[in-house]
Amino acid sequence: MKAAVIRAPYRFNIEDHPVPQPGPGEVLIRIHAVGICGSDVHGMEADGGQRRQPGLIMGHESAGQIEAVGPNVTDWKAGDRVAIDPQLSCGYCYACERGWKNLCENGVTIGSSRKHLTHGAMREYITVPTRQIYKLPDNVSFDEGATLDFVGNAVHVLNRSNSKLGDTFVIIGTGAIGLIAVQLAKLRGAGKIIAVDTSDSKLALAARFGADRTINPIKEDAIAVIKEETGGYGADIVLEMVGLPATYDTAVRAAKMQGTVMALGFAADQVTIPIQPLLFSEVTIVGCTGFSFEGPTVLNMIADGRIDVKPLITHEFPLDQIESGFEVLLDKKADAIKVIIHP
After folding, report:
1. Cα gap 213→31, rounded to integer Å
2. Contact criterion met (CB below 8 Å) for 291 and 266
3. Which of 192, 287, 201 is CA-nearest to residue 243?
4. For the chain, is the Cβ count within 10 Å smaller at the N or the C terminus?
5. Domain annotation for the chain: domains and CATH numbers
6. Residues β-bridged to residue 213
7. How would you classify residue 96: left for phi > 0, otherwise alpha for psi between -120 and 50, otherwise beta?
8. Cα Rg for the chain, rounded, in angstroms?
């Protein structure tokens, strides 16, 4: 089979590898679609590139079709169309026993080398345990199925926010996750949604999805506009989807008294939080990572049209043009949101 193997930052070899064989409780999946995530880009740069090391087959946003099942697999069969949860959990640690598989103490993510090299889906075939797969509804394409991970992350963030009908949302970062968050905030009955990004094209899409006000902080004072739009108080819920010191600073300052900042963005090892507004406004910061039990909800909402992922898929490339996929993502003029690779 063909596999894209990292040899240097943004440089890949397309190599021939043996097709893996499914073990007990596993299935062999023919990958049809795999997305390039922002963490794939940052992972080659942050931490000295430790999250995406040379020798790794990356790719954690994927969907495909079962080709074969391993011993003891009875609930799945060849031909089933599936999306893959990339978070491999052990099932027995403190977190897993409580249903927090995204916090598994022994967990790893496919396509990452953060804990140890765990090959992902930028190849023609992959084997995974059956607990990692979800059946695709008939009207959900492989490309749409490959969005499970980042859509699941957005759903998880909104679930943890405990938002109420009429709450004001500020969403900082309108990449793939942020644009899903705009849709979800609308579905949750937000009183007002304010989107912040430096890309006018992404802000236009945020407005299409339901943002009432968009702010490009290069052109406007984001905090001043947010205060003006919220009667001088700030937002009930602020979603930080970027992960830089400047954007976390904005997030805390944008929250109202006893407001909540949902922290998902992760592009820098450390960020500085403005302590005065945090303390004197009693702002709550809630950490978020990955999704947990939301997989079926995500696919059902895509299937019935409540979540629209199609406009987010802006570019598609075959596996042997994977470097072009990264070039598009790195080119600010390309207006790329989600790049899908077809092995």
Report:
1. 39
2. no
3. 287
4. N
5. 2-147+309-342 (3.90.180.10), 152-287 (3.40.50.720)
6. 194
7. alpha
8. 20
* Contact of 176 with 202, CB cutoff 8 Å: no
pLDDT tens for each residue of 297-330: 999 999 999 999 999 999 999 999 999 999 999 9
Tracing tokens 């905090």 back to the chain, one arrives at 223
Report the distance separating Cα 234 and Cα 283, nearest Å.
Answer: 11
Find out whether 297 and 184 touch, Cβ atoms under 8 Å.
no
Q: Are 180 and 199 in contact (CB under 8 A)?
A: no
Angle among Cα 183, 63, 243 to the nearest 5 degrees reads 50
**Most confident stretch, 7-11, 14-18, 41-45:** 14-18
End-to-end CA distance of the chain: 10
**What is the DSSP-derived secondary structure letter of residue 37?**
P
pLDDT(115) > 80: no
Residue among 269, 40, 2 nearest 149 (CA): 40
Indicate if the pLDDT at residue 160 is higher than 70. yes
Is residue 145 helix, strand or coil?
helix
Phi, psi of 337 (to 5 degrees): -115, -65
Q: Assess whether pLDDT exceeds 70 at residue 49.
A: no
Secondary structure (3-state) at 334: helix
Sign of the alpha-carbon dihedral angle for 63, 67, 70, 75: positive
Element (H, E) at 275: helix 275-280
pTM for the predicted model, two decimal places: 0.94
